[in-house]
Write a structure and sequence with these properties.
Chain A is of the alpha/beta class. In chain A, 40% of the residues lie in helices and 16% in strands. The first copy, chain A, is built from 10 helices and 11 strands. Strand 6 of chain A pairs antiparallel with strand 6 of chain B.
């Protein structure tokens, strides 16, 4: 049996549609949702991400304010820019594109984003609230939130499920684990030091792969019928492509789709979700700001 | 084979000895470590905890400043007191004894404790830092930190171990799970909605019980040779005692000690550790304040 595809393109389009409607309701009240994007340096991949985010903003009715600083920018310059955007009432969300150049301390910059505009959801206060009962984060981090939407909108039952999260990064693995605990899954957090990993992953009703290793999850590591969310975005060589390269996930898709019950493809799975959730957070921020 | 006892009394006494030496070094420099305790209302158990903490403070050379407010105190009164203590340079740590009376919003009060004096480690910023790589919490929450000390000082290898945490509370289960992930254990977080719980716990090399249900963990739930940390402090009826009551853990100690490799008793396991870690955090705060 071949796994059902969880279509991130279609699901993210639905979410962008909802966001667009919410933005229109705000505009009707005279509020224009605004996202500031900050790009430091000239990394082409980062520039492409930012430009894609701005394009999607325009499509849903979010105004974007783009700011670029040179690769040699000082920490003070970045800090000053972020502080200024933090005080700008037209800006409801601030996106600092990561990674930042080496001379800049990432935590210092991210801490300078006011909590109310932290649409990326990376602030430690947000992560703390995510880990705690009775606290609501100001914003849920976009990529992990996208994973949860994919599970929910593909009809995967989270409560009571055995969820295994492969990877414990600040921006994907750990927050998605915390979200899954909050949704009453039994959650196992695995990483490079995990022993007998295939045994652990093969018990997962929900398997989240977020380790950044191409084709790492093989079919023997997957429980028959499991829902597999592939959070990997790895570029590998592919001579058959004009570019000589190809984007693949952390999951050996071809083999795993024969075992799993449902699976996200790469591309077209988690990728488009991150931006959709960023747009959702921005419009929510504008709505909150409007009271 | 009977499990080795992990002696929380002896280990906590070692830690208090270390804290006393650190306090003496500070006093020699003219710095007196100070802990403010805040008790709202007249709950006898809370009063007893606070008085025990103050007694232990005195033993290790920490000055304690006790403040009581009546059960009917308003939120403003508690907030004003905590704010005043936050600004007092003689106070290096503030302990607000929980639970607070119903009219008082606990998160509001705890958020008012300055991060630099949050020796309980309950602030969401602290919890967020605990969950994130590359961030150091100002203080590690006392009870979970005590569990880790019990593991370390009893020679239990954490890195690579399968650790199962039963319970996901803000003050015990979740932070201990985050600490264990940080120490490279593979961590499974279980709770009331976990399916087939005995199967899950029986895979644990390290089993942490923190659910508040007397004798819940039975011998069939424990892997032979596992290290079991019993975080339960449940009062049950016991006609053979003069008080008619007895303190027991979440673990069926009598049966589980025949299976486990090492186990903490109740009382005398995790109990004395919490205060020891509170004292440690307070003296560390004073040392940090002194530069």
């Amino acid at each position: 049996m071949t796994a059902r595809l969880i279509d991130g393109k279609a699901i993210s389009a639905d979410i962008r549609g909802e966001v667009k409607e919410a933005a229109e309701r705000l505009r009707a009240k005279g509020i224009v949702p605004g996202l500031a994007t900050v790009l430091v340096g000239n990394d082409p991949a980062s520039a492409k991400y930012v430009s894609m985010k701005r394009k999607k903003c325009a499509e849903v009715g979010i105004e974007s304010f783009h700011h670029e600083l040179p690769h040699e920018a000082t920490q003070e310059q970045v800090l000053e820019l972020v502080t200024r955007l933090g005080a700008d009432p037209a800006v409801h969300g601030i996106l600092v594109q990561l990674p930042l150049p080496k001379q800049i301390d990432e935590p210092t910059i991210l801490n300078a984003v006011p909590l109310a505009k932290d649409v990326d959801g990376f602030h430690p206060l947000n992560i703390g609230a995510l880990a705690m009962k009775g606290r609501d984060p100001a914003f849920v981090p976009c990529t992990p939130n996208g994973f949860i939407e994919l599970l929910d909108r593909s009809g995967t039952e989270i409560s009571g499920a055995n969820a295994v999260v492969l990877g414990r990064s600040n921006i994907v693995g750990m927050p998605v684990a915390l979200l899954l605990v909050g949704r009453n899954a039994t959650v196992t957090i695995c990483h490079s030091r995990t022993q007998n990993l295939p045994e652990v992953t093969a018990r997962a009703d929900i398997l989240i792969a977020a380790i950044g290793r191409a084709h790492f999850v093989t079919s023997d590591m997957v429980k028959p019928g499991a829902t597999v969310i592939d959070g990997g975005t790895n570029v590998i060589d592919d001579a058959s492509r004009k570019s000589g390269k190809r984007l693949v996930g952390d999951v050996d898709f071809g083999a795993v789709q024969e075992i799993a019950g449902a699976i996200t493809p790469v591309p077209g799975g988690v990728g488009p979700m991150t931006i959709a959730m960023l747009l959702q957070n921005t419009v929510r921020s504008a709505a909150r700001d409007a009271g």
